[in-house]
Please model this.
Amino acid sequence: MKEVDIKHLSKLANIQLDKEEEKILQKDLDKIIIHIRKIQEVEVNKTPNTTHLSIEELPLRSDKKEKPLSVKEVLSNAQNPSKNHFTINRMINEDDS
Amino acid sequence: MKTILEYQEQFKKEEMTPLDLLEKSLEKIDPSLNAYITVTEELARKGLKKDIQGKLKGIPIAIKDNINIKGIPTTCASNVLKGFIPPFSATVIERIQRSGGIFTGKTNLDEFGMGSSTERSNIGPTKNPYDLTKVPGGSSGGSAAAVASGSAVISLGSDTGGSVRQPASYCGLVGLKPTYGRVSRYGLVAFGSSLDQIGIIGRNAEDVGVLLKVIAGYDPKDSTSSQSKVEDYGNLNDTPKNLRIGIPEEYFKQIDEEVYTSVMKIKKAIEKEGILFKSVSLPTTGYIIPTYQVISYAEASSNLARYDGVRYGLRKDGEDFHDTIRKSRNEGFLSEVKRRILIGSFVLSSEAIAEYYERADLIRRLITQEFNDVFKEVDYLLTPATPTPAFPIGERTDDPIRMHVPDRMTAGANLAGIPAVAAPAGMIGKLPIGYQLIGKPFDEKGLLSIVRLVEKIVPFQGFIKEAQDG
Model:
C-alpha cells in the first residue's frame, strides 16, 4: 500500500522527478513513513511544545544600519542577470494579459 | 603528535616556520582519500604572508564545505551549488583569520550534511584513512579524514545529528558538538536550523579547546547565538574532581560487543581516578531517531526551498518560471536530499502535521526533559559514540533507514541542544572506535577536561603514523 502520494509531495517540494526516480523514491518514502510512525506510540498529551532551545533570554541586535553587500556582489552568482536585477522566465503570457 | 600550542612554541623558538608546517600539510593531501572538494593553497599562502599574531598563528585548518569562506566556492557537495562563490565569510572563518589560522581547503561531506558516511557527495565518497574500503563517517567525513591523514592540524565540521562526533569516532579523533548557541551559525549553510551547530574535529582535547575559544561567543548576526561567557577551553590542566558520570543503559543495547568492551575500559580507567559512576535510564532513547528524522527533514525541506536557481546556483530552463524551478531542483539534488525534502514536505503538510511534526516537537521536549532530570543526578553521561566501527563503503547507500543507525547515539544531544564530545576509546582490529560524553549546557570545558584526563591515563595508540610528525 502506498503511504504517501509522491506526485503531490513533489509538487509541494517543487521538484519535478523523472519517472524512474519517482518509482524508487515512492518505495523509499513508504518505508521511511512506516519507520517514523513509531513516534505515535509516545504519550504526549501532557507535554508542552518545544518553542525554543535557549536557556537564556536572547538579545536583539541594535537597530543600526550596516553596510550591505553591493548589488554587484549580490548578483555575482546569478545566471544571466540584467544590469541591476535577477532575471527569471516570463511569468505572464500574452494571452493572460 | 604535536599540539597547536607545541607548534606555536616551535614557531617562537624558530625550530619550525609556519611555512614549513603548511608545506608538510599540503604534501599530505592524498587525492585517493577524496577528503577535499577544494584545496585552498593560494589562500593559505596569502594568509601566512599577513603574519597575524594570534592563538592560531600558522595553524593549517580544514573547513567543511558548507561553511562560507569569502571568494572560495561553497558547494555543500551538491550540483545545485556548483560554481557558487560566497560574497561573505562565516563568523567562525573571520574569527579564525583574526587569530592567524590558515585554511588548507574545503572538505567533502554528504550533500548539505545529510548522511552518515560522506558517500552521498557529488564528487564521490571520502575514504577512511585507516582502511580505504571503509567510510570515514559523516557528514563531516572530509574534515575527519583530513585531520587523521595529517593534511590539517584541526578542522571544522557541522553537527546536526552527530555529523562531527560520528566521523571523529570512525577516524580516531576528538569531535566536539558545542551547546546550541555557543558558536555562531552565521555563514553555515542551513540544514536543520534548530539542530545545526558548528563543531570541531581535532587530534586531542586541548587543540579542540584552543580552537573553540577562538570561534565561540556572541555574534549579533546569529539570533540564536548565546551571550554566556567564553571560557579558556584550551586550559585543561585541572583534573576533574568530585564528579558523577551516568551510564545510560539504553545506549549500551544493540551495539558491537567490542564497542561495549572498549567503552567499559574507559569507564574503569576513569573510575580509578576517583570519579563515581551510576546507572541511569533515558526511556525515550528509542524514539530519538524517528523524532530527529521528522524534525530535521521538516527543517531541511523549508531551508532548502531557497535553491530555486534564481539568485544563485544551478538553473535548468523550463517552459515557465515554475517549471524552471522544478527542473533545476531535480537536476541539482542527489536522491537522499530529495528523499528528505519530500518527507519533510509530507510531515509539514496540512493532513500530516499534527501526527508527525507537532508530535515530534512534543517528544523533543520529553527527550530534553529526560536529559535535564538525569543531570540532577549526574554531571555527565558516558556512552559509545557509535554502535559499531566504520562500515564498508557502499554497504548502506541504498538503505535510507539503516544509514541513520549511528545517529541513535548522537542525535539526542542535538534535539536537547546540549554539548557532547566523541573521543578515541581504542582500536577494533585496524579501525578506531570512540566513546561519547554528553554534558550540561555550556559545560564544554568540563567535557574536554575529562577527555584530557582519559588521554593521560589511557593514551590512544591508534594514530596513523604519517600524521604524527605533521
Remarks:
- Chain A has a mean pLDDT of 88.
- Residues 6-41 of chain A form one domain.
- Chain A has three helices and no strands.
